[in-house]
Specification:
The chain has 183 residues and is an all-alpha fold. The chain has two domains: 23-123, Leucine-rich Repeat Variant (Alpha Horseshoe); 127-183, no CATH class. It is 74% helix and 0% strand. The chain is built from twelve helices and no strands. It has helices at residues 2-20, 24-33, 36-42, 48-61, 67-72, 79-92, 98-104, 110-122, 129-138, 141-154, 160-169, 172-182. The longest helix has 19 residues, at 2-20. Residues 15-20 have low confidence and may be disordered.
């Protein structure tokens, strides 16, 4: 009798766990119905592919309520989830994404940084200029060029010292881009 009860309890537990687990089909369904609350919950799924798909869907839905949960993903260990969360934040094009996108500049992931740099430029985020200025000194040539382009796009005098540094120390292509950005 005890064995039968144990088997029944085990079966019920397995069925409950199976019914609670999320799938990529669930993510697609929630995206198509605009259920951002379920997608936000899915960001914390133990399966990284579910969190990645949820982040992508939230970016597509452009739901401002997803900003803080997506920003929390920047502290995850899965690099693809982090990059997808940064991409989703960039896609939202909302002023409240400036802070998490600026925080993404400090990530040790060049792809996530590049996404954040471009998004901050598109939003003309003058508040990000000091951190972009810090980043430019240690960036590779491609990322330096991207930052210079963003400085030109933002068109703020706050970027002038960083552009002058590139005029003095940068490679010829960076010097030319800096001169153009300065006008």
């Amino acid at each position: 009798m005890k064995q039968l009860i144990y088997i029944l309890l085990t079966s019920i537990t397995i069925l409950m766990l199976a019914s609670c687990s999320r799938t990529l089909d669930d993510i697609s369904k929630w995206e198509s119905t605009g259920n951002h609350l379920k997608l936000i919950e899915a960001l914390e799924d133990s399966d990284p592919s579910i969190g990645i798909a949820a982040a992508e869907a939230l970016g597509t839905l452009q739901t401002p309520e997803a900003i803080l949960p997506l920003a929390a993903c920047l502290n995850q260990t899965n690099k693809l989830l982090i990059t997808t969360a940064v991409q989703a934040l960039a896609h939202l094009e909302h002023p409240n994404t400036i802070t998490p996108l600026t925080a993404a500049l400090r990530l040790e992931q060049p792809a996530a940084q590049a996404i954040a740099i471009e998004a901050l430029g598109a939003m003309k985020a003058t508040g990000a200029i000091p951190i972009l200025g810090e980043l430019i000194s240690s960036a590779d040539a491609q990322q330096k060029m991207l930052i210079i382009t963003v400085f030109e796009e933002i068109a703020s005098p706050t970027a002038t010292p960083y552009l002058i540094d590139q005029l003095k120390q940068g490679a010829p292509a960076l010097q030319a881009a800096s001169a153009q950005a300065l006008g």
